[in-house]
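Curious: why this fold?
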Amino acid sequence: MRMLARGLAAASAAVFGLVIVFGTVTSVAAAEGCPNEALRAGHSRQLADCRAYEMVSPADMNGNGVEQVFAVRGDGQALAYGTLNVFGDAGSSLTGKWRAVRTSEGWATSSLNPPLLGRNPNAYDEPVALGFSADLSGALLGTRYPFDPRDASPYVNLSDPGNGDLYLLDPGPGAEWVSHGATLPDETSFDRAFGGASADLSRIFFETAEPLTAAAAGSTLPNVYEDHAGALATVNVDETGTLIPGGAGIGRGQSAVAAFYSGAEFQGGNVNQGHATDRSAVSADGRTVVFTAPLEPSTAKRQVYVRRDGATAEASLCRFGPCAGEGAPSGALFLVASPNGGTTLFFSRDRLTEAAPAGGGIYSFDVATEALSFLTPVGTGSVGFRHGGLLAASEDLSYLYLCESGSGVSVFHAGEVKPVAAVPCNADAGPAGATEPTADRAGGAVPGVEGITSQGEPRPTPDSGYVFTTTAELGGYDNAGESEAYLYEAASGALRCLSCRPDGAPARAGAFLGKGSGTFENRPTPLAAGVSVRNLNEAGNQAFFVSEEQLLPQDIDGTLDVYEWERAGTGGCGPAAAGYSAASGGCVSLVSSGTDRDGSVLEGVSASGEDVFVATASNLVPADTGTELELYDARVDGGLAAQNAAPGSPCEGESSCRPPNPPPPAAPPAASAAFSGEGNATPRHRCRKGRHAPKGHRGTGARRRAHKHRHGRCVKGSRRGAGR
């Protein structure tokens, strides 16, 4: 890491590059040898790794702030995001869905809103961003609005304007309706539920109780269908093509209607927002899909099936003892599958193989050979239960992070279980507002599977390690009951506190993986599109988190900021570097400015960690002169000449686009000559009278609460629907 050099200067100095902290003046010199140094002016100059800010969202959004990021392309060159209202060339008056792509000229934003047809939309017509192709060229939306005139589901009233359906947006105008049957126009009243899709969106899986194929004729229960190049096929059929009775659902069978629900699209982790509950249940190439059957009656024992290239296998088939040749007597629960579709993990309390104990646990099914292997028990003794389960899994499933008895985290690797941390954990809860290790998405009630009440979707994590937060005191650091971010390094087994104060002083505020709490407690996590924030890069040497703690002198806003941790020995990080902590085994540096009193939010990270996307109201480049919440990329070797020129100024080349140095940051109140101890009290931003942040969700129906926080900013509420 090209760390910023720090040194002491005279307290009377007042030139750019000096940050006054606790009565001293600390120099923040530019990193040596940055190829983009001409573009690292202003706020960018304090960034490590030769990062520079690039404004991703347009400078003029008609007064709209960024709501959330839906998806980040792996290379960081594109992302999709949403805004409360539309602007520019949006195809409709519904809330804005946008795709931003980095070009040689800068970031270009285009609308993902399909054009309206017929009636004006209302609040419950709101499209939900279900998923995106890996390159972000295509998008999949769930909505009750009939973007295709053949979608003739009857309009009943405001809260029931039609069925939830799936629409595919490829490059080009219009939207393709992909969840219909052969009989058109379709005037029936059956919702669709999104289950998953291939990485290129060429194969899309959904559920509906409407019988759409000959194989499902006469069925009144939900069945699983695949749309592939316009051809529709039933998925939950046996090797003879006969429908498996009792209904079926993709993954755990907990999918929700592909439409706007509950009055708010962005309620993080809410299963009623149409997203795929189990993202790994469909392989990247779409050739493999995992489903659960039967769903009815509720007392029936659910089994896990895998269908690949038109052939179906019962993964949870008992291979040993009295149950041999039958499904798991106590039922089975899907957990996670590898991206290539080759391996499926599930839970059952039954002894399905000779190597398994009497109480069962986690099993691994090899799709190619149909071999079943027992991996490890889960929970108290040999029986899993509500809080026990799988918290996270590496992509190749070689590392499984387990919640044991609700009171400890362990890792399963190479046939062994090793302790990670003795901390509370919960495998059935989503991460919104949680300060303990949890599964990624909240699980619902699981009928038909004994030994476990609920199981959330395991969080994806690199092979290199696992990042989590907890309020438990670990490693002797006095966290004063605040949440801290920790990294478990898989190779060494070391547990490192990423967010503990580098000076070793007791904590005064907490750290979070994405959004935080306090003024941001009503700011939703980016989950509605099926994308989680990446907190650890693929190499495992950079981690990203949000903290209200002042971890560096440059952080003077007293609220949430985005931080980067880098392992010692990487780049310029070492004992003499700024932000180094022996306790963390690395260096921390700011990714956000540290000067936005409304706080900043971590919205996404590229696979390499070179692109970190931050939402902030601060104007981090001269081209940003608005007050909306903007989206920035803190990019390694980044920076755009056009954005470093003030609006209206000529810019004919990189050398002519260097802005004048801004004034130095304001000095915080003096305290001591060294950055240690309690320090200054952390100020809390409060809304003006008449503007407040109510707790709980954003309400239901077309009208929202009168006032709310928007990314920590106090703003007036708005009315969804037509006529905006």
Summary: The CA atoms of residues 69 and 197 lie 19 Å apart. The first strand starts at residue 6 and ends at 9.
